[in-house]
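The passage that follows is intended for readers who have already worked through the single-chain material. We present the inputs for a multi-component assembly, then the predicted structure in tokenized form, and finally a short commentary. You are encouraged to pause after the input and sketch how you expect the pieces to fit together before reading on.
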Amino acid sequence: MNERPEGNANDDFATKAKARFDESVARIDGATQSKLTRARHEALAELAAPRPAWAQWVPATGVAAAAVLAVVMWTGGPSVNDLAAPEVASDMEILLTEDSLEMLEDLEFYSWIDLDEELSTEPENHVG
Amino acid sequence: MNDCIAGFAVSCELPERTGVDTLQGEAKLNRFFAEVEKRALRIAEISIRDRDEALDLVQDAMIKLARRYADKPADELTPLFYRILQNRIRDWQRRQAVRNRVMVWFGKSGEDDDYDPVAAAPDTAGRSPDEELESYEAMAGLEVALAGLPGRQREAFMLRTFEGLDVAGTAAAMGVSEGSVKTHYSRAVHSLRETLGEHWQ
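Having made your guess, compare it with the prediction:
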């Protein structure tokens, strides 16, 4: 009997998966679509948003705070002894991983979002 | 040439933009976001199994792209956007794992509310109930199978198949080599076909 090459079968599978995924995208409800639209507009508003002068100091402050937190967690607190060492090491890795530091570097950015939301008179501008 | 333009580096700042640049950048980004946002939401949702959290991650990725990379050429935006989004997803998953461990340590479950695919199911789009059910069940099965894959395989499959990125674009979005993308993608397809069976539609 004819047996299709593996590559063709993989391509067929990917085509079906893409079709099912696209159908699920098309089923996204109006409320979610509306939230996405607001998210997009908030992102576009970022293009024209001025950055406050004090914000230049926030990244350094955030990294310093993370370092202090790491030292405190590593050296102090009775709870550390109750955790298995590999898990503590793993959690420290997560807290100090590049992505987390990137989030800390973006603190001024999230502070700006919070400030902007507080000043906003339109509560529907918030997503989620 | 600015170092930020070369490649898909995601850690450098762009210079100040003029008013005209901002308007052009806004129009370009608006088109890009409108084109990609729903697929990005579904990809994030499949990755973390929570629509509200996925919305937040997509919004974060949009804002970071607008803030730092609005001046990038249009053809670089998709891999850049997904690189930011995938970083957000991985960061969320790691934090969630830590949170769950802490909750277990305090004697509480980290899963306050289980993901409910029926409640999260969106509206139909003019198809018969049988067709809708078949499509929904097939996608639900695929999502379960995707959840069982290693993270890198899932990323490679979704970026290549769902978003339609080529190997180079997927590699840029994932921050890995093209060879690694091919390996992850091939293993993902093999595992998914094995899990779902030949009759999966």
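Commentary: The first helix of chain B runs from residue 19 to 48. The two ends of chain B are 49 Å apart (CA to CA). How closely did your sketch match?
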